[in-house]
Amino acid sequence: MNAEPKMATRVISSHSLTCTKLTLFTFSAVMIQIIGLSLFIYGFFPVKPTLSGINGLESFSPPGVDSIDSSQNISALPPEKLKSLYQEVSGVPPLFDRLILMVIDGLPAEFLLGKNGKPPPKLFMEAMPYTQSLLAKGLAIGYHAKATPPTVTMPRLKAMVSGAIGGFLDVASNFNTQAFLDDNLIAQFRRIRWKMVMLGDETWLKLFPNMFDRHDGVSSFFVKDTIQVDCNVSRHLTNELSNTDWDLLILHYLGLDHVGHVGGRNSVLMGPKLKEMDEVIERIHSSITLTQEINQRGTLLLIASDHGMTDGGNHGGSSYEETDSLALFVSAQKFSNAGDSKEVNQVDIAPTLALLFGVPIPKNNVGTVMAELFATLKAEQQLRALQLNSWQLLRLLQTHFTESRCERFSCKSGSDKSDGAEKFCCSYLHATELHESWILNNSRFVDGDDFSSILLAYKDFLGTASKWLSSRSSDKPIGLLALGIAAMLLSCLGLMGLLFLFARDINFKGSHHVSHTNQRTHMWDLDESLIVTIIFILILCMGSSSMVEEEQYIWHFMTSSFYLVLLRKTIQSITTVEHKVRITPSIYTVISVLICGRILRGWHQGGVNWSHLPDISKLLEQAGTVYIQSLHLLSVGLVIIICSVVLLTSRLSKKLSVFLMLIYLFPSLMIFEQILKYQVDTFTFSVGNTTKIQIIYTLIGTCTVGILVAVPWLMPLRHSKTSKDAINLSNDALEESQSELLLRGFRDSVYVIGWCYIFSWCLLQMLLQQPINSMPTSLLLLQILASICYFSSGGIHIKQWVKVAALYYVGMAGHFGLGNTNTLATIDVAGAFNGISSHSTVLSGILMFIITYASPMLALLSMLMDVSMMDIRAAANSKDSDFGHVLKMTLGYPCLVPLALNSVLLVAYTIVLLLMRNHLFVWSVFSPKYLYVCATTVCVYIGVSVMAFTVTYTCMVLATRRRLLSCSM
Length: 969
Description:
Strand order of the largest sheet: 4-3-5-1-6-7-2-8
Structural class: mainly alpha
Low-confidence stretches: 3-14, 512-521, 720-727, 876-880
Largest sheet: 8 strands, mixed
Radius of gyration: 34 Å
Strand content: under 5%
Helix content: 55-70%
């Protein structure tokens, strides 16, 4: 009667996945995924192609016309001779002799110029009275200089000095700046032997090494230093303004950006910082006015910002607040047409400065000259400036089109000019013909209609060419992208296949204990169906830019819906009074998860469209720092209480539980002291504070590693039988008793280590997260532990893969609950430098990752506690089982489910990104989201690796103890 089931058992077991096979296959799938992802990133985000070399005298001749110069001749010319030659052939006389470039990092243009025709807020106007007076008197012309994303310092400085728009992945280079070798203004000025001085952000020194005759660089990454970082610049100001040996003086002030990072736009320190900058501007303007009166040397002061900032003080994305940078030209003499502020592109600064100072426009410039600054020149000189700019852009256009000599086009009026090359050439030729006709007619007046027509024709060509070149992305190698997607798809199918094989293996081995008449075991419940449905909903929403921007609503809604389904399932399972008493705690835990989720949902109004709406965090910030500090202290206390209760109510001995809590007593007290002593004064940088944070890091790390290493060796092995009973056991029974003994030790060890990881991670977050995020972190901890408690209660049958997926979803919902979005602007830069005494790209990057992925990593680490509550006694007591089998049963779902879910989302969004490669929002919405998807993949890799290493190490130690125990008997 039982022959067929036994034979089926042997057949299935012969083809079942062993622990070794499962490990090798999973590792291979992950490696294939990494290779595919690398290929896709390399193909989709290439470095934009640029023209090599530096522009010389050829830039003053039309494209295709041999220049009177060769690069050999230029290199042989003395700098003074080259400078004179430039001025001779340029046709645009330099309007100034010296340049002071004052960069106020993070200053939004609307702080000075207002927005939408409205003046700036009263607070900002009153903070900068002198600068406002310069605008009112016509001594300054202000521009809203739109920056392109990513709005971080390094690529924006490149854009200002080269006029070129870099690749999207320049955001990564912002933290590890390399020398800038493309044509740029600094190289052009150096070529004519300008003496240059740089004070401020050391990014300039990294971009342009050995270019400055004097310099004093400061690090831009200690964002809590809002005072000393600017004092280090201003302390040299008196001496440098009195010196006459320099031609270019760069002053890069970082304090305002740091104020924004720490306190946001409305920080109490924003007004005083603007006042400080206004006083610096007054000193500089007074100096250049005096200098011009004494020695007739005209000095231009350009006050610029690299980017703006959001209401929270962050930047990196593409919102108006982040891209609204400033370009304010200030002189000792009035500008002829200074008036209302105008809108330009940030890249327009480079060609404008080049022509104002008589050097060639950089080769890769895509900007257009700001014609208002040349209004004092003669008519032919103004048109010459536009002509030089047109020649430079035409050369750049010709690199994108084959057979692009404009002479081959007829350009008849009314003909269809849909072809790109013909469209640009005809626009250029039209302006050139008007210009040549104007010269032949010997017209030299600015007020004539002919002059206006030429001006409009040139601006039409420059505007369309600049816009096309700015939006032009390099051709993507479709073959490489397809190969990358194929590799990721293969990996995804492999991981899903392993998950299905593993599930079949587990279900079969449990099925012969269940009646074959129970067909329900082969059906999916509503909670299982919803877990899969959530993934499909996410995939469908990825194709919409608005849904990508507001993804947090999907996670919050779907996660809450899933737990409502669990609540319904739990209530429906109540059949008797006794069952009701046993199920009631499970109902309370689900309700607590839902309440915590709702609070997290309302803590931050994330995304883009509704971020201005009120939320809990905004109300607390309005209430003041005292309330936030009190909440921070309460959150730390709540984390300690929750972790203590979880440990003291476990099956561990009370002595061991108390001992483990005492280990964390000292770092917990130090965190309390840190909050009480330093949180109120978050705007100052303290060496003592940094040292204390480093001590806390060390203590938390030592506790974590110490518990990981020691607990599997020292964990007491509990036994339900007395020693007297154990003596009377047979050999088989004794061996089974030893297996059960070691299994208990294994579960207890994994439980303690998982608890240690969670406690250490939460204490670390209390130290690193913004104080406003302390309570969401503690609520997230409560949510995760309540979920684990519900899953392990035993009242409701929920499959293991559903439990793991639920914890993964809670982690992702919590990621957005902490204020994260799919824009780079919400990355917390300020916290990434806590406890770092000297700039380190690696260390600050690690801290930034820890802060950003606090929630997903907490969910992954918590799976160890869930693992320790699994019932695997049957596997451990099986005669043909070993610790490899225990490893497989323990780690199968916790490792495969996160990897498979993430793999599905990664492949889906990779395909979406490829389809959207020509979308209007590809760089502002879809590409930043893809960076987050990649970072989430790294997070999953790390979390799964930590789980696998911890359980494997514990198993190895227990196996060793088992052998020692057997030998002793």
